[in-house]
Structures are given as C-alpha cells and as structure tokens.
Amino acid sequence: MSLLQDFGFGSCFIQESHNEFERLILSSAQKALSKSKSDIDSISQLFWYSGIEAGDETRHNDNVLNLFRYPVSRLRHELGLTKANSITLSQQGCGGLLSSIYLAKQLLVASEVEKDAVLCVAADVFPHWAKREIMYNIMSDATAALVVSKEAGNNRIVHFHQTFQSYYWDTPKHEDELLASYFPIAQRTIENTVHQAGLTLADIKWFIPHNVSLKSWEILAKLLNVPIKKIWTNNIARIGHTVSCDHIINLVDMESEGALNEGDYLALFTFGFGANWSCLILQH
C-alpha cells in the first residue's frame, strides 16, 4: 500500500452492485446528451466500449436466452434512441474509447446528414474476485459518455494515431516486456501524433493522461522534454486509473475548474493491453 501511495494513488472506487452500475451507465449517457447540442433524433449511432469482457455473472442460469440480453440495446431503449444503430466494441484495453471517438469521427465525415451525431459510452467494472492493483496501478470502476457531432462547439478532433505491437497480445506472459517497452513506444507515439497533426509539443497546452502512476508520467514528461505541470495529473490520487474512462472524466473536471481555454490544443494519451499505444489531439 505504501508503494502505491508513493506512486501517487489515494483512492479506489468499487461498484459492488451490477444493477447500480447499469444505472450509472444510463446517467452518464443522459448527462452527455443533455450537454450536447445534438437532439435525440440526430443520434445515428450508439457505441458502447468495454475493455473488460468479464460478463454479467447474474445472467448465467438455465435459460440460454439470457446470454442474448444485450446491455447496449437496453441502453438504447432507455434513452429513447429510436433512430440509432447500436454496437458494442471491445478488446483494446484502456485505449478503446479513444478508438471509438476516432471511428465516430470517420462515420460523420462519410455521412451526408447535416446534423448527424454519435453517442459513445464506456463502462468497465471488475469482477468481484479481481485484485485492484495491476502492474503498479490502482484500478477503479467507472462509466463515461460523450457525443461526437458535426455541431460540436469545442473539442474539435484534430488527429488520431495508434502504435500496435501485437507480439504482446498474451498480457500475462509478456508483463515484464510490456513494462520495458511502455516508455519508448509511448514517447514515439505521442511525438508522431503531434507531428502528423502539424503541431509541435510546445503547441500542446495540456497533456490529458490516462491515470496511471504519477511517477510514470514524471518519467514520460522527461522523455518528451515537457514540464510535468503541462500534464493534468489531479485525478490520479482522487480516482486512480479506470480502464477506459479517464480522459472523459479528466476533461469534464478540467472544464469545471476553468483549466481549458478556447483554442487550446490537448493531447490525450493512453496505453491499452493488446497492445496499443494511442494518442488523440483535440482543440478545445
């Protein structure tokens, strides 16, 4: 415990009731829709991302039809998204929500509908038997949601880039190698993303992290030659690392604290088991 505290962690959020967790997913989606400029009828797609494929243990009984009670369809029904196609995405670890955002953008670019929009939801809860320390990080349960739309007034999607190393697909077998490769590939991914966006690291106002240990961000900041004060680490101690919701939680909290200004370039970086290093550039 003292080691994890030294790494910058203070709290962990555990959702013990599955029914309550489903209510939180609905609440996150409702809040995202209420803050969006898009109305219900303009939502053409609903993406649900989960990085953990633990499943709902309450569904396993003698009726095999319970295996086909899809939470994403229930969410679509409860939100009243009568015109939205729904799909669930997985297997990109902590990087899946950023990939969902990029996929949503690509669909909107191809769409001829003037006010088209996509609702992206992320939800991960660890099974009851799982430990909360994973490779020196504290893991919390969380939900998050956002709307990607043609009418969005801020957080314009500038560029997205991923680096893949599929050799590391067997995470338990390659744990030590992943730890060794994390920093050089993270550095290269962030630098390549910023360069491809036509920017420099100095142009980035904030690096918005996945909430892995503070020490790891201190190391990465030195490799990138950027001051640690440009990395918004406030939530590492408060909520720890969620699988895929960190960036949205951090963006919401930064905006509520007045940390974001119009025109700011933001770099959202994460690593996902699998293995993929992902970076998304936004302009607030």
In spatial order, strands of the major sheet run 2-1-3-6
Report, as a whole number of angstroms, the end-to-end distance: 37 Å
Helices and strands, in order, run as HHEHEHEEEEEHEHHHEE
Strand content: 15-25%
The top-level CATH class of the largest domain is Alpha Beta
Could you characterize the architecture of this molecule?
With 284 residues, the chain is an alpha/beta fold. The chain contains 8 helices and 10 strands. It has helices at residues 2-6, 18-35, 71-79, 96-110, 175-196, 214-224, 234-239, 246-256; strands at 43-50, 85-90, 117-124, 133-134, 137-138, 142-149, 156-164, 204-208, 265-272, 276-283. It has a 4-stranded mixed beta sheet, sandwiched between helices. Strands 7-10-9-8 form a 4-stranded mixed beta sheet, sandwiched between helices. Strands 4-5 form a two-stranded antiparallel sheet. Helix 2 crosses helix 3 (71-79) and helix 5 (175-196) crosses helix 6 (214-224). The mean pLDDT is 91.
Task: Write a concise keyword list for the protein shown above.
Peroxisomal Thiolase, Chain A, domain 1, alpha/beta, 2 domains, 10 strands, 284 residues
SSE layout and pairings?
Layout: H1 2-6, H2 18-35, E1 43-50, H3 71-79, E2 85-90, H4 96-110, E3 117-124, E4 133-134, E5 137-138, E6 142-149, E7 156-164, H5 175-196, E8 204-208, H6 214-224, H7 234-239, H8 246-256, E9 265-272, E10 276-283
Parallel strand pairs: 1-2, 1-3, 8-9
Antiparallel strand pairs: 3-6, 4-5, 7-10, 9-10
